[in-house]
Design brief:
Layout lengths: L12 H25 L17
Length: 54
């Protein structure tokens, strides 16, 4: 028989704020920068299959 773990307390205000800032820095800011400059997200990445194969 398995006994469920007690519920974890919700994260505090500081932890939530830190997670939001981390998300904005890692994902939101680069996305906004690409939109403002008109640069697609795939620019500068190598092709998966650079040569045409049958």
């Amino acid at each position: 028989m398995r006994i469920p773990l007690p519920a974890a307390p919700p994260p505090g205000r500081g932890a939530r704020r830190g997670a939001d800032l981390r998300f904005a820095r890692e994902h939101l800011a680069p996305w906004i920068r690409r939109r403002l400059t008109g640069r697609p997200s795939g620019d500068g990445r190598p092709a998966k299959r650079p040569e045409l194969l049958p």
